[in-house]
Amino acid sequence: MSHSPSHSPQNSIEVRSLTKIYRSHVKQEGLAGSLKSFFKREYKERQAVKGVSFEIRQGELVGMLGANGAGKTTTLKMLSGLLTPTSGDAHVMGFVPWERSNDFKRQFAIVMGQRNQLWWDLPAADAFLLNKEIYRIPESDYRKRLQNLAERLNITDKLHVQVRRLSLGERMKCELIGSLLHAPRVLFLDEPTIGLDVIAQKAVRDFIREYNRESETTIILTSHYMSDIEELCERVIVIDDGAIKFDGALRDLVAGYVDEKIITIVLRDAAPKHELERFGTVTEWQPERAQIRAPRGQIAAIAASILSAHDVVDLTIEEVPIEEVIRKIL
Ligand SMILES: Nc1ncnc2c1ncn2[C@@H]1O[C@H](COP(=O)(O)OP(=O)(O)OP(=O)(O)O)[C@@H](O)[C@H]1O
Ligand SMILES: [Mg+2]
């Protein structure tokens, strides 16, 4: 186990100037290009993470927010030991993750919403048994945890169904169980709600919140959905183009930068722009379709007045895009 001089036992995760540069081989086009590449390889460099530093205490649930390609997954992969950084250091529970010691692996887990860790052709229960062997989970702990997790996620009846036959939400619930059977002290959730329907999203969120409170597992959660972060995390780290732009209380971020929501309406009959302007700022207007921004606090009342004033075919209320929140911070 290697420790940095500043290593503090209260911190579950300590990250200092962590940097990752991906190098990928670029092949020139055509045969001439192939020959040229053969003799002189050209590399394209992409600095995905640029000197990131932060600390997370044991038991904290921290949200990591950032646009596509911001460097979230790359950061979590380094903290999981799946990637070695180009420079900088990190300690997770005192371990350097990319040294991949067995003691480290037994105490952490990563779930990636975009990637399946279970076996497609087998029921989840079979994959769990393998985890039991790999992590050497004692029989009684295993049974207790499996039963408890499955009940809380309301998935007990699906554990013996082939994974390929499960819905996306059911699969994610099984992924979560698989990652928690060995009771890790640190858990990384990379977009655990991506693509899930609203009900499954809520179930997964509620579970994560309660699990974090009860078990005091340290959790970093990334998401594209502002509402995931809103509902789960007091603290949020905003990462943009590989660098941290904000690290602090979510309420400060929201109060300072995101005071509006967006209402999109589709109307049966065209409405002139000035008529819609009394509801808020009209940011997009085609006679039958418009986007209106209005203060968060009044959004339900404003949506109700739109519905009563116009013949509305469809109405949705959304958060401002994360990209915009991030732009405001810069
Ligand atoms: N294996 C790789 N080789 C080269 N470049 C990569 C590789 N993986 C990621 N990148 C690049 O590094 C940058 C950061 O990617 P990363 O996946 O960490 O972003 P992210 O914040 O997780 O994005 P998303 O929200 O889309 O998941 C992107 O520009 C991406 O294209
Ligand atoms: Mg990602």
Description:
This protein has 330 residues and is α/β, with parallel strands linked by helices. Helices cover 35% and strands 31% of the residues. The protein has helices at 30-39, 72-80, 102-105, 124-134, 139-152, 168-180, 198-215, 226-232, 250-257, 273-276, 299-309, 322-329, and strands at 11-26, 42-57, 61-65, 87-92, 108-112, 186-190, 218-223, 235-240, 243-249, 260-267, 281-286, 289-295, 312-319. Helix 4 runs parallel beside helix 6. The longest helix is centred in the middle third of the chain and has 18 residues, at 198-215. The model is unreliable at 1-5 (pLDDT under 50). Adenosine-5'-triphosphate (ATP) binds next to strand 1, strand 2 and helix 2. The site of adenosine-5'-triphosphate has 12 residues, from strand 1, strand 2 and helix 2.
